[in-house]
Amino acid sequence: MTGGQRLALTDHAGLILAAGFSSRMGTLKPLLRLGEYTLLEHAIRSMLLAGVHDVFVVLGHRAAEIEASLTCRAQVEIVYNAAYASGMFSSVQAGIRAILAKENPYQAFFMLPGDHPFIAPELPGELAVAAEQSGKGIVLPRYQGKNGHPCRIAMRYAQEILTSDFE
Fold first, then answer.
1. Among 68, 91, 99, 138, which lies 20 to 30 A Cα-Cα from 80?
2. Is 143:119 a contact under the CB 8 Å cutoff?
3. Using CA atoms, how far apart are residues 30 and 114, in angstroms rounded to an integer?
């Protein structure tokens, strides 16, 4: 893709994880303001601007407060993870269950932590193209030799993730 061209990613879901305690930060990261929006709202907007139409936001700790703060609430599906205290992987699983419950036959999903406010709008499309060209089911962006976000995960891994006891 060139010149900022973006794909319509209707066969991809967005999965944003924002259920944790933010214990190392000392304050709730999804509610931190960065300019006009919170970190979580920036992450959501990044997915929507990239062309991902179905965005699932997983909440847990202080879920009601975070949900009430969202100015873009109507544009996302909120997923509540009652097991959020057991760790991030439980939020991944909760999000995948919600994605699978939709009638849209998604090919893959983009997973993004809710405290990653900015991704280039063309990045998800580039990851989808890279996955298609390589045949790989999991594709990560790299920047200066380090893995980044969001990652693209093919739905063919969904059941394996749901049945794993990773944590």
1. 138
2. no
3. 6
pTM, two decimals, is: 0.91
Q: Return the bridge partners of 152, or none.
A: 110, 139
Give 49-96 pLDDT, tens digit per residue: 999 999 999 999 999 999 999 988 888 999 999 999 999 999 999 999
Separation of alpha carbons 97 and 70, rounded Å = 22
Q: From CA 6, how far away is CA 3, in angstroms rounded? A: 9
Q: What HEC string does the chain produce?
A: CCCCCCCCCCCEEEEEEECCCCCCCCCCHHHCEECCEEHHHHHHHHHHHCCCCEEEEEECCCHHHHHHHCCCHHHCEEEECCCHHHCHHHHHHHHHHHHHHCCCCCCEEEEEECCCCCCCCCHHHHHHHHHHHHCCCEECCEECCEECCCEEEEHHHHHHHHHCCCC
In single-letter form, the type of residue at position 62 comes to R
| Closest among 70, 165, 76, 156 to 109, alpha carbons compared | 156
Cα 139 from Cα 12, distance rounded (Å): 13
